[in-house]
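Exercise 7b. C-alpha coordinates:
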Protein backbone atom coordinates (compact mmCIF):
# COMPACT_ATOMS: atom_id res chain seq x y z
CA UNK A 1 0.00 0.00 0.00
CA UNK A 2 2.80 2.39 0.94
CA UNK A 3 4.72 1.53 -2.24
CA UNK A 4 1.59 2.17 -4.31
CA UNK A 5 1.17 5.57 -2.64
CA UNK A 6 4.73 6.59 -3.40
CA UNK A 7 4.39 5.36 -6.99
CA UNK A 8 1.35 7.62 -7.36
CA UNK A 9 3.34 10.54 -5.93
CA UNK A 10 6.21 9.84 -8.35
CA UNK A 11 3.76 9.71 -11.25
CA UNK A 12 2.30 13.05 -10.11
CA UNK A 13 5.77 14.61 -10.05
CA UNK A 14 6.56 13.36 -13.56
CA UNK A 15 3.25 14.63 -14.95
CA UNK A 16 3.68 18.03 -13.31
CA UNK A 17 7.24 18.33 -14.59
CA UNK A 18 5.98 17.66 -18.11
CA UNK A 19 3.36 20.39 -17.61
CA UNK A 20 6.09 22.85 -16.62
CA UNK A 21 8.11 22.06 -19.75
CA UNK A 22 5.03 22.23 -21.97
CA UNK A 23 3.85 25.59 -20.58
CA UNK A 24 7.27 27.18 -20.93
CA UNK A 25 7.57 25.96 -24.50
CA UNK A 26 4.07 27.20 -25.26
CA UNK A 27 4.82 30.63 -23.76
CA UNK A 28 7.93 30.92 -25.94
CA UNK A 29 6.01 29.92 -29.07
CA UNK A 30 3.20 32.41 -28.31
CA UNK A 31 5.72 35.24 -27.83
CA UNK A 32 7.42 34.35 -31.11
CA UNK A 33 4.14 34.24 -33.02
CA UNK A 34 3.05 37.62 -31.62
CA UNK A 35 6.29 39.27 -32.74
CA UNK A 36 6.04 37.78 -36.21
CA UNK A 37 2.46 39.02 -36.62
CA UNK A 38 3.41 42.66 -36.11
CA UNK A 39 4.93 44.54 -38.98
CA UNK A 40 8.12 46.55 -38.50
CA UNK A 41 6.20 49.84 -38.71
CA UNK A 42 3.64 48.68 -36.14
CA UNK A 43 6.41 47.64 -33.75
CA UNK A 44 8.13 51.02 -33.99
CA UNK A 45 4.90 52.96 -33.45
CA UNK A 46 3.96 50.73 -30.53
CA UNK A 47 7.33 51.29 -28.85
CA UNK A 48 7.30 55.05 -29.46
CA UNK A 49 3.79 55.35 -28.03
CA UNK A 50 4.90 53.48 -24.94
CA UNK A 51 7.97 55.67 -24.47
CA UNK A 52 6.01 58.92 -24.83
CA UNK A 53 4.32 58.23 -21.48
CA UNK A 54 7.20 56.39 -19.86
CA UNK A 55 8.92 57.53 -16.67
CA UNK A 56 12.55 57.70 -17.76
CA UNK A 57 13.75 57.89 -14.16
CA UNK A 58 12.76 54.24 -13.68
CA UNK A 59 14.60 51.07 -14.70
CA UNK A 60 13.61 49.09 -17.79
CA UNK A 61 14.08 45.57 -19.04
CA UNK A 62 14.52 45.42 -22.80
CA UNK A 63 14.43 42.11 -24.66
CA UNK A 64 15.68 41.96 -28.24
CA UNK A 65 14.63 39.70 -31.08
CA UNK A 66 18.07 38.07 -30.98
CA UNK A 67 17.39 36.84 -27.43
CA UNK A 68 19.46 39.34 -25.47
CA UNK A 69 18.12 41.06 -22.35
CA UNK A 70 19.35 44.49 -21.23
CA UNK A 71 18.58 46.18 -17.90
CA UNK A 72 19.09 49.88 -17.24
CA UNK A 73 17.76 53.41 -17.59
CA UNK A 74 16.70 54.99 -20.87
CA UNK A 75 18.76 58.14 -21.40
CA UNK A 76 17.52 59.22 -24.83
CA UNK A 77 14.61 58.40 -27.12
CA UNK A 78 15.55 58.92 -30.75
CA UNK A 79 13.70 58.61 -34.03
CA UNK A 80 15.12 55.15 -34.79
CA UNK A 81 16.67 53.95 -31.53
CA UNK A 82 17.00 54.45 -27.81
CA UNK A 83 20.11 55.01 -25.72
CA UNK A 84 20.26 52.80 -22.65
CA UNK A 85 22.65 53.04 -19.69
CA UNK A 86 23.43 49.69 -18.07
CA UNK A 87 25.99 48.50 -15.51
CA UNK A 88 28.31 47.73 -18.44
CA UNK A 89 27.98 51.16 -20.05
CA UNK A 90 25.83 52.81 -22.73
CA UNK A 91 24.44 51.23 -25.88
CA UNK A 92 22.10 52.12 -28.72
CA UNK A 93 19.22 49.72 -29.49
CA UNK A 94 17.29 50.03 -32.72
CA UNK A 95 13.50 49.89 -32.41
CA UNK A 96 13.45 47.20 -35.09
CA UNK A 97 15.57 44.96 -32.84
CA UNK A 98 13.32 45.27 -29.77
CA UNK A 99 10.93 42.50 -28.82
CA UNK A 100 9.60 44.02 -25.58
CA UNK A 101 10.15 46.86 -23.08
CA UNK A 102 9.01 46.61 -19.48
CA UNK A 103 9.29 49.17 -16.69
CA UNK A 104 10.31 47.51 -13.42
CA UNK A 105 10.73 48.58 -9.82
CA UNK A 106 14.30 49.32 -8.82
CA UNK A 107 14.10 46.64 -6.11
CA UNK A 108 13.49 44.08 -8.88
CA UNK A 109 17.05 44.64 -10.06
CA UNK A 110 19.40 42.61 -7.86
CA UNK A 111 23.11 42.51 -8.58
CA UNK A 112 22.40 43.66 -12.13
CA UNK A 113 19.88 40.87 -12.76
CA UNK A 114 16.14 41.32 -13.25
CA UNK A 115 14.00 39.29 -10.88
CA UNK A 116 10.57 38.92 -12.47
CA UNK A 117 7.55 39.20 -10.12
CA UNK A 118 6.74 36.23 -7.92
CA UNK A 119 4.15 34.28 -9.95
CA UNK A 120 2.57 32.73 -6.84
CA UNK A 121 2.65 35.28 -4.02
CA UNK A 122 -1.01 34.89 -3.00
CA UNK A 123 -0.63 31.31 -1.73
CA UNK A 124 1.82 29.22 0.21
CA UNK A 125 1.16 25.53 -0.51
CA UNK A 126 -2.51 25.18 0.36
CA UNK A 127 -3.40 28.23 2.42
CA UNK A 128 -3.37 31.89 1.32
CA UNK A 129 -1.32 34.92 2.19
CA UNK A 130 -3.05 38.29 2.56
CA UNK A 131 -1.79 39.37 -0.88
CA UNK A 132 -4.45 39.49 -3.60
CA UNK A 133 -4.41 38.90 -7.31
CA UNK A 134 -4.65 42.10 -9.32
CA UNK A 135 -7.82 42.76 -11.27
CA UNK A 136 -7.98 40.49 -14.31
CA UNK A 137 -5.07 38.29 -13.19
CA UNK A 138 -5.58 34.61 -12.51
CA UNK A 139 -3.93 31.25 -12.07
CA UNK A 140 -4.52 27.53 -12.43
CA UNK A 141 -3.19 25.21 -9.73
CA UNK A 142 -2.83 21.44 -9.81
CA UNK A 143 -1.85 19.48 -6.70
CA UNK A 144 -1.12 15.74 -6.84
CA UNK A 145 -2.76 15.77 -10.32
CA UNK A 146 -6.08 15.13 -8.52
CA UNK A 147 -6.86 18.60 -7.19
CA UNK A 148 -7.52 21.27 -9.81
CA UNK A 149 -8.37 24.88 -9.05
CA UNK A 150 -8.48 28.34 -10.60
CA UNK A 151 -8.63 31.82 -9.08
CA UNK A 152 -9.11 35.28 -10.61
CA UNK A 153 -8.96 38.85 -9.38
CA UNK A 154 -12.38 40.47 -9.73
CA UNK A 155 -10.83 43.68 -8.41
CA UNK A 156 -7.49 44.47 -6.78
CA UNK A 157 -9.14 43.65 -3.44
CA UNK A 158 -11.58 40.84 -4.25
CA UNK A 159 -10.58 37.39 -5.52
CA UNK A 160 -12.72 34.37 -6.29
CA UNK A 161 -11.54 30.83 -6.81
CA UNK A 162 -12.73 27.27 -6.92
CA UNK A 163 -11.97 23.79 -8.12
CA UNK A 164 -12.75 20.10 -8.16
CA UNK A 165 -11.18 16.80 -7.14
CA UNK A 166 -10.59 14.55 -10.15
CA UNK A 167 -11.44 11.02 -8.96
CA UNK A 168 -14.77 11.98 -7.40
CA UNK A 169 -15.63 13.82 -10.61
CA UNK A 170 -14.85 10.74 -12.73
CA UNK A 171 -17.22 8.57 -10.65
CA UNK A 172 -19.98 11.15 -10.98
CA UNK A 173 -19.96 12.58 -7.45
CA UNK A 174 -17.61 15.55 -7.72
CA UNK A 175 -16.15 17.08 -4.59
CA UNK A 176 -15.79 20.80 -5.25
CA UNK A 177 -14.57 23.82 -3.35
CA UNK A 178 -15.02 27.60 -3.55
CA UNK A 179 -12.52 30.14 -2.19
CA UNK A 180 -13.67 33.81 -2.13
CA UNK A 181 -11.26 36.24 -0.48
CA UNK A 182 -10.90 39.96 0.20
CA UNK A 183 -7.59 41.65 0.95
CA UNK A 184 -6.22 45.13 1.56
CA UNK A 185 -2.82 46.75 1.85
CA UNK A 186 -2.57 48.54 5.20
CA UNK A 187 0.83 50.13 4.66
CA UNK A 188 4.10 49.39 2.87
CA UNK A 189 4.79 46.26 4.94
CA UNK A 190 1.38 44.97 6.04
CA UNK A 191 -1.53 43.36 4.19
CA UNK A 192 -4.66 41.86 5.73
CA UNK A 193 -7.27 39.54 4.27
CA UNK A 194 -10.27 37.37 5.06
CA UNK A 195 -11.97 34.60 3.20
CA UNK A 196 -13.82 31.33 3.05
CA UNK A 197 -12.89 27.80 2.02
CA UNK A 198 -16.18 26.00 1.26
CA UNK A 199 -16.15 22.29 0.38
CA UNK A 200 -19.10 20.19 -0.72
CA UNK A 201 -20.08 17.34 -3.03
CA UNK A 202 -22.65 16.67 -5.73
CA UNK A 203 -23.93 13.13 -5.28
CA UNK A 204 -26.38 11.01 -3.37
CA UNK A 205 -23.84 9.03 -1.36
CA UNK A 206 -21.72 12.10 -0.64
CA UNK A 207 -23.71 14.81 1.07
CA UNK A 208 -21.83 17.29 3.23
CA UNK A 209 -20.98 20.95 3.57
CA UNK A 210 -17.73 21.90 5.27
CA UNK A 211 -15.14 24.62 5.28
CA UNK A 212 -13.20 27.28 7.13
CA UNK A 213 -13.83 30.97 7.77
CA UNK A 214 -10.47 32.68 8.20
CA UNK A 215 -8.54 35.91 8.57
CA UNK A 216 -4.86 36.42 7.75
CA UNK A 217 -2.24 39.15 8.15
CA UNK A 218 0.97 39.22 6.09
CA UNK A 219 4.14 41.15 6.82
CA UNK A 220 6.77 41.70 4.12
CA UNK A 221 7.02 41.76 0.35
CA UNK A 222 5.61 39.38 -2.24
CA UNK A 223 9.03 37.70 -2.39
CA UNK A 224 9.80 37.50 1.32
CA UNK A 225 7.01 37.43 3.87
CA UNK A 226 5.45 35.79 6.91
CA UNK A 227 1.72 35.35 7.61
CA UNK A 228 -0.32 34.61 10.71
CA UNK A 229 -3.91 33.48 10.45
CA UNK A 230 -6.85 32.25 12.48
CA UNK A 231 -9.80 30.20 11.25
CA UNK A 232 -12.97 28.51 12.47
CA UNK A 233 -14.09 25.30 10.79
CA UNK A 234 -17.67 24.28 10.14
CA UNK A 235 -19.43 21.07 9.14
CA UNK A 236 -23.05 20.85 7.99
CA UNK A 237 -23.90 24.19 9.56
CA UNK A 238 -22.14 23.65 12.89
CA UNK A 239 -19.35 26.16 13.52
CA UNK A 240 -16.44 25.05 15.67
CA UNK A 241 -16.01 26.90 18.95
CA UNK A 242 -12.26 26.29 18.87
CA UNK A 243 -10.01 28.10 16.41
CA UNK A 244 -7.14 26.84 14.31
CA UNK A 245 -4.06 29.01 13.88
CA UNK A 246 -1.59 29.21 11.01
CA UNK A 247 1.94 30.52 10.69
CA UNK A 248 3.41 30.48 7.18
CA UNK A 249 6.21 32.10 5.26
CA UNK A 250 8.12 32.23 2.01
CA UNK A 251 11.48 33.59 0.96
CA UNK A 252 12.97 33.94 -2.49
CA UNK A 253 16.54 32.70 -2.36
CA UNK A 254 17.37 33.35 -6.03
CA UNK A 255 15.76 34.49 -9.25
CA UNK A 256 14.27 31.06 -9.90
CA UNK A 257 14.09 29.42 -6.48
CA UNK A 258 12.47 29.98 -3.11
CA UNK A 259 11.51 28.25 0.13
CA UNK A 260 7.96 27.90 1.50
CA UNK A 261 6.64 26.72 4.86
CA UNK A 262 3.00 26.40 5.93
CA UNK A 263 2.07 25.33 9.46
CA UNK A 264 -1.17 24.80 11.39
CA UNK A 265 -1.95 24.62 15.10
CA UNK A 266 -5.38 23.13 15.80
CA UNK A 267 -7.07 23.48 19.18
CA UNK A 268 -8.65 20.10 19.97
CA UNK A 269 -9.78 21.00 23.46
CA UNK A 270 -7.12 18.83 24.99
CA UNK A 271 -4.14 20.55 23.42
CA UNK A 272 -2.82 21.61 20.04
CA UNK A 273 -2.43 19.30 17.05
CA UNK A 274 0.38 20.51 14.81
CA UNK A 275 0.71 20.06 11.05
CA UNK A 276 3.73 21.60 9.37
CA UNK A 277 5.15 21.62 5.85
CA UNK A 278 8.25 22.73 3.99
CA UNK A 279 8.93 22.97 0.29
CA UNK A 280 11.26 24.20 -2.42
CA UNK A 281 9.56 26.45 -4.96
CA UNK A 282 10.92 26.72 -8.51
CA UNK A 283 9.94 29.84 -10.45
CA UNK A 284 9.27 30.58 -14.09
CA UNK A 285 8.10 33.99 -15.24
CA UNK A 286 4.47 32.85 -15.15
CA UNK A 287 4.72 29.43 -13.51
CA UNK A 288 5.95 27.78 -10.34
CA UNK A 289 6.48 24.22 -9.15
CA UNK A 290 6.47 23.16 -5.48
CA UNK A 291 8.13 20.04 -4.16
CA UNK A 292 7.90 19.53 -0.42
CA UNK A 293 6.68 17.48 2.52
CA UNK A 294 3.74 17.58 4.94
CA UNK A 295 4.50 16.34 8.43
CA UNK A 296 3.40 16.09 12.05
CA UNK A 297 4.54 13.97 15.01
CA UNK A 298 2.35 11.01 14.03
CA UNK A 299 3.52 11.02 10.39
CA UNK A 300 7.14 11.42 11.46
CA UNK A 301 7.02 8.11 13.36
CA UNK A 302 6.51 6.28 10.06
CA UNK A 303 8.02 8.71 7.55
CA UNK A 304 10.61 10.92 9.19
CA UNK A 305 10.78 13.41 6.33
CA UNK A 306 6.99 13.52 5.87
CA UNK A 307 4.47 12.85 3.11
CA UNK A 308 5.56 14.24 -0.29
CA UNK A 309 3.65 17.21 -1.64
CA UNK A 310 3.76 18.44 -5.25
CA UNK A 311 1.88 21.15 -7.10
CA UNK A 312 2.11 23.25 -10.23
CA UNK A 313 0.80 26.79 -10.82
CA UNK A 314 0.55 28.72 -14.07
CA UNK A 315 -0.76 32.26 -14.42
CA UNK A 316 -3.17 33.54 -17.03
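Sequence design result:
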Amino acid sequence: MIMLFYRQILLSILILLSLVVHCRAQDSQEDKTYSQRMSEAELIEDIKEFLENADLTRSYVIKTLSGNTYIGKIEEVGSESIRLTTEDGELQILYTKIESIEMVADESIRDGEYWFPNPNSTRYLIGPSAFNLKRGDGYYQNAYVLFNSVAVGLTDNINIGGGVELLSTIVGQPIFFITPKVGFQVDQDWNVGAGLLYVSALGRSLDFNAGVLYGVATYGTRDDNISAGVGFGFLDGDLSARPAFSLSGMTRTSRRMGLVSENYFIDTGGGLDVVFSYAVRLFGESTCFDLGFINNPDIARSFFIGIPYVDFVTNF
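Instructor comment: The CA atoms of residues 61 and 71 lie 5 Å apart. The chain has two domains: 38-114, 119-315.
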